[in-house]
Design brief:
57% of the residues lie in helices and 6% in strands. It is mostly helical and 611 residues long. Helix 9 packs across helix 13, helix 9 crosses helix 14 and helix 10 packs antiparallel against helix 12.
Length: 611
């Protein structure tokens, strides 16, 4: 037989072989992928431990914030939960946040600069840039610095630091144990989700937030440990704190069609507000970057603003979860809620822009709730027959501002439901949050969570789709007939054939088979043309052949190419893995994307086909 025999395939595609698994001693085939195995069970067990640990951390941080608050504003040693609003310091209240800012700035400079910020973006950075490795000291420095910042009047929620601390604990666990970078990312996300779940008793939204902002994927190996961690943390919180919802709100009725239209339209306005809030925060941060002072002093400067605003509106200081209760119940409404939320926005945005240690969720919920309440009041006055409920409007505004600012749509909707347990609010929430999300996506390139990361040159993916290559079989695109080389032919003979034959000059790689048509290896044109022409083709083969099965997916094939550092793979069947029935190249994989691109074109004009 000549040096270039061919093998035909039946019909227009390769026949997919039955799923048999013979011994593969002479070829390197893709390893079988298993979605659920004992590693998943092991990581899930670690997730449960993280959930319990995060619940303890949440309670400890809450107690530490209360201790600092009592010391700073009331001069007493106590861990009783109390806010700064009832202090009797007078104008001296301005000094307290400044002192807190000085302490936090010193901790950041001489301890770790990583404590700066509101938690989630910093965790995202570690996932994207550092293989989810967070230093152990962050597990202690972040909650302590946040407790000082919030306890001295910082207008932040405790949830951001708890999320960051839970993530740091998960990352540390993933560094001391023998796990992969992917599993370490899962543990980081599990710790973060557990922190949020332990704070608000919101296990489902915590998982969704982890998926949308930390995992950047939706698959069993990562979702199960995160979900179990979140469930464990919430269960521990219920055992410690009780089963009451995080935010008290009277029961609301199902919305009318007119009211629903108002809530959706309100989402558009809140979406624009989320864009304005995000730009305000980063505009202030940019302004501080231009100051001729070391960043260590910035939190103290922000503390001046926090203190002055707190002097006129004491409720703007501290965690302020009770403010959300008042807005959602309708106790804080009208002009009072507008004035309060404007002052809260000023205090929070300036303080956050300094890079101090704090959170964003509670301030965004507060500001969004106030905005929604104000819009709802105007709509109720202008459209008295629409049946707009100011409390539902506040609920929608609360969630929609976070959905627009963070782009965590599903997490925002479910969070508002879990923390208030208002089933009739789900429909308005879905409509309003989706409208805000759409407007935010159309007006902002990055969210409040990703802007800082994007400035570092990273691209954060926010759209998760099924892997296109996973949906296509090798048999659908592999080339056949296959040009093969005989192992016992001389190199000189093959070179002569390549020079005179058009088929030989067109191909860049050739399977090598023996006298029984069994694959021996794969040689490229370079392998055949380099060096002297002495010897036979078999002598040029240096490694076992890397092959792919005809019923494997293109994702399996692409991964196998990457592992083996090759650009083409002979295609074999599972029942006879040493007999070549096709050939797959990198260009075949690239060409397979034409149908995907075609499906995204509205005009349906044919894309350029492979020549």
């Amino acid at each position: 037989m000549g040096p270039h025999s061919t093998r035909e395939r039946a019909g227009d595609r390769l026949a997919v072989a039955p799923s048999m698994e013979p011994a593969l001693d002479s070829v390197k085939a893709p390893a079988a992928r298993v979605e659920a195995d004992l590693r998943v069970v092991w990581v899930s067990a670690l997730g449960v431990a993280l959930g319990l640990g995060a619940a303890v951390i949440a309670r400890a941080l809450t107690a530490l914030i209360a201790l600092v608050t009592n010391l700073a504003f009331y001069g007493r040693l106590s861990t009783e939960t109390v806010g700064p609003a009832d202090n009797h310091l007078g104008w001296l209240v301005v000094v307290v946040p400044v002192i807190g800012g000085l302490v936090v700035g010193a901790m950041a400079r001489y301890g770790s600069a990583a404590i700066r910020g509101h938690g989630i973006p910093e965790a995202m950075e570690q996932v994207l840039f550092n293989e989810s490795r967070i230093p152990l000291r962050m597990t202690f420095l972040k909650p302590v610095s946040a407790a000082i910042s919030i306890g001295t009047g910082g207008p932040f929620g405790a949830e951001g630091p708890i999320i960051a601390t839970g993530g740091a604990l998960g990352s540390f666990l993933g560094q001391v144990l023998r796990v992969s970078a992917q599993e370490r990312k899962t543990l980081l996300a599990a710790g973060a989700a557990a922190g949020m779940s332990a704070t608000f008793a919101s296990p489902v939204s915590a998982v969704l937030l982890a998926i949308e902002l930390l995992l950047f994927e939706y698959r069993l190996r990562s979702m199960v440990p995160v979900a179990l961690a979140s469930a464990a943390a919430c269960g521990a919180r219920l055992a410690i704190v009780g089963s009451a919802p995080a935010f008290a709100m009277p029961l609301v009725s199902a919305p009318s069609g007119g009211a629903l239209a108002v809530y959706i339209a309100m989402g558009v306005v809140v979406g624009l507000a989320s864009m304005a809030v995000t730009r305000l925060v980063y505009g202030i941060e940019d302004a501080f970057e231009k100051l001729p002072l070391h960043w260590m002093w910035w939190p103290a400067i922000g503390g001046v603003v926090v203190g002055v605003v707190g002097y006129f509106s004491p409720r703007t200081m501290g965690v302020g979860y009770d403010n959300i209760d008042r807005i959602l119940s309708g106790d804080l409404a009208g002009q009072a809620v507008v004035a309060f939320c404007v002052l809260k926005l000023v205090s929070w945005s300036v303080s956050l822009g300094t890079g101090t240690s704090g959170g964003t969720l509670a301030p965004l919920f507060t500001i969004g709730g106030g905005l929604g309440s104000a819009i709802g009041a105007m709509a109720a006055w202008a459209l008295p027959h629409a049946g707009v409920d100011i409390r539902v409007a506040a609920l929608v505004g609360m969630a929609a501002l976070f959905a627009g600012a963070s782009r965590a749509l599903l997490a925002s909707v479910v969070f508002a439901f879990e923390t208030t347990r208002q089933p009739m609010g789900l429909l308005p929430l879905l409509g309003g949050c989706t409208a805000a999300y759409l407007v935010s996506a159309m007006t902002m390139r990055h969210s409040i969570m990703t802007e800082k990361i994007a400035r570092r040159g990273a691209r954060v993916v926010s759209a998760y789709t099924a892997d296109f290559l996973e949906q296509i079989l090798v048999a659908d695109v592999a080339a056949a007939p296959v040009v093969v080389l005989r192992a016992d032919d001389t190199v000189e003979k093959v070179r002569a054939w390549m020079q005179r034959d058009a088929t030989g000059s067109a191909h860049q790689g050739f399977p090598v088979v023996d006298a029984d048509d069994r694959i021996v290896g794969v040689l490229t044109r370079r392998d055949l043309l380099e060096g002297a022409a002495a010897g036979d083709v078999r002598g040029r083969v240096k490694r076992p052949p890397a092959v792919v099965f005809d019923d494997s997916s293109l994702r399996d094939a692409a991964d196998h190419m990457a592992r083996e550092r090759v650009g083409r793979l002979p295609v074999v069947s599972r029942d006879d893995p040493e007999r070549v029935i096709g050939m797959l190249s990198r260009s075949d994989i690239i060409e397979s994307h034409v149908s995907r691109l075609q499906a995204e074109h509205v005009d349906r004009k044919p894309l350029r086909q492979k020549a």
